[in-house]
Amino acid sequence: MYDARSSYVATSVQTASPARLLTMLCDRLLLDVERAAHALDAGQRPRATQQLAHAQEIVAELIASLDVDGWEGGPGLLSIYTWLHGELLAASAAGDVERVRACARVVEPIARTWREAAEQSARDAAAPVAGTPAPASGTGLLGVG
Question: What are the structural domains of the chain?
Answer without folding.
Answer: 11-126 (1.20.120.340)
